[in-house]
Amino acid sequence: MLKSSSLKKILVVAESIDVEDSSASKGRVALIKNLAKAGFQLQVYHYTRKNIQLENIPCYAIKENRRSFLFILSRLERQIRYKLKIHLNKPLEKIFGFSFTLFNDRNSIVSSLKEIQIKEYDLVLTLSKGGSFRPHHALLKMPAEWHKKWMAYIHDPYPFSCYPRPYDWVEPGHAKKRNFFIEISKNATFMAYPSLLLARWMESYYPGSKDKRVIIPHQIQTDYSVGKLPAFFDKTKFNIVHAGFLMGARNPTGLLKAFKLFLEKNPEARENVRLIMIDGPSIYSNNFQKMMFQVPQFYATEKKLTFDCVYAVQQNASVNVILEAKAPISPFLPGKFPHCIASEKPILLLGPNISESHRLLGKDYPYWAEIDDVEAIYQHIGTLYKERNSDKSDNSKHDCLREYLSPKYLKKTFQEIRT
């Protein structure tokens, strides 16, 4: 039996530790680093397919098996898709549930893990990104002694048919994908989630995982290298910043309309206020270009910025925006949430009333609105602007959340683990 006091060595199996490839990887790296700061001994096996090292944390890059039959099949399917424009991937996923690429990646990870003496570790933590869960696939292929020490980190709902609206859809092979997650819930000893609402949401689909719940929120990382501010950012202005990819459901139209309304009713503020959207190309890019032409106080990036640069902007913003979908519920904890808390600046929270961000900030949080409530957003911008140089903005909740997202709280969470 593993007792909390004996939990010292953790084997981390991560899909990626490249902070530039996705917001998910940034979050996983922050978790890994904070586990090390909390005093745990780590060994990281990662499938980034780059020789990436984390300071003072031993990392091993798992190699892709490029000689297997599955690898050949995956490349053949890809060539047929690109050159002949015949899309076999969806019919194949209907049959097998997953792609040949995923199966080969899983087997590549399994081959590396078989070289490990699992008795040397107290816990195995699998971390993924997007909808692949490759390390989780690999752990299911390992012996039962691995499963007794397995903590499966579930960052998002799975499969897509289990997502809340408006993100839900029935993807090819969804039944096999659902069975895959049933196997995780049966075999993993712990099911870790970044948010309480996500845990409850997933447990409604996989009831067997309810007694295995561990909440591990996205982490504040104190040793980020804050990059140089970009030329478009003037920190002497009152900068309202949204940083992050805008999927179709994250519609910024209400925010744009509210900002224009604020400028119309407060012409004296035009020299001082900026609304900045940091994002790569999205379905809103054309609207942003039109807005930039009409409203010089608005700026949207046209290409992806490095993480260090984005983080520098967030820390120097006057207000950070968290924008979620128009939906009955949002069980997700946004990856940017700890960055916004670390900035110690007000957060303009735009999203459902029932959301993890709203739960953490508090139901009485003053700067919350639905994403299409133009009048409420306008009022919040006005209040935040008026209070910009005063002590009226109450960020005391941020202090509690900094503790919740810290290595100290993370250590406490892991010390309470029992099997």
Briefly characterize the structure.
The chain has 419 residues and is α/β, with parallel strands linked by helices. It contains 16 helices and 15 strands.
Instruction: Estimate the global geometry from the Cα principal axes.
Output: globular
Strand order of the largest sheet: 3-2-1-4-5-6-7
- Helix content class: 25-40%
Number of helices: 16
Largest sheet: 7 strands, parallel
What's the name of the CATH homologous superfamily of the largest domain?
A: Glycogen Phosphorylase B
What is the distance, rounded to the nearest whole angstrom, between the alpha carbons of the first and last residues? 6 Å
Poorly predicted runs of 5 or more residues: none
Question: Based on DSSP secondary structure assignment, what is the total number of beta strands?
Answer: 15
- Please indicate the percent range of residues in DSSP E strands (runs of 2 or more): 5-15%
**CATH first level of the largest domain: which class?**
Alpha Beta
Total domain count:
2
So, CATH architecture of the largest domain?
3-Layer(aba) Sandwich
In CATH terms, what is the fold-level topology of the largest domain? Rossmann fold
Backbone CA Rg = 22 Å
Structural class: alpha/beta
- Write down the overall mean pLDDT: 93
Describe this structure in words.
- The chain is α/β, with parallel strands linked by helices and 419 residues long.
- It has two domains: 4-216, Glycogen Phosphorylase B (Rossmann fold, 3-Layer(aba) Sandwich), CATH 3.40.50.2000; 238-403, Rossmann fold, CATH 3.40.50.
- Helix content is 39%, strand content 15%.
- The protein has helices at residues 23-37, 69-83, 89-96, 100-113, 134-140, 144-147, 174-187, 196-205, 253-265, 285-294, 307-316, 337-343, 356-361, 374-386, 396-404, 407-415, and strands at residues 9-14, 41-46, 59-61, 123-127, 150-153, 190-193, 213-215, 238-243, 273-278, 298-300, 319-323, 329-330, 347-350, 354-355, 368-369.
- Strands 3-2-1-4-5-6-7 form a seven-stranded parallel sheet, sandwiched between helices. A six-stranded parallel sheet has the order 10-9-8-11-13-15, sandwiched between helices. Strands 12-14 form a two-stranded parallel ribbon.
- Helix 10 links the parallel strand 9 (273-278) and strand 10.
- Helix 9 (253-265) packs across helix 14 (374-386) and helix 11 packs across helix 12.
- The protein is globular, with a radius of gyration of 22 Å.
- The chain starts with 8 loop residues before the first strand and ends with a helix.
- The model has no long low-confidence stretch (mean pLDDT 93).
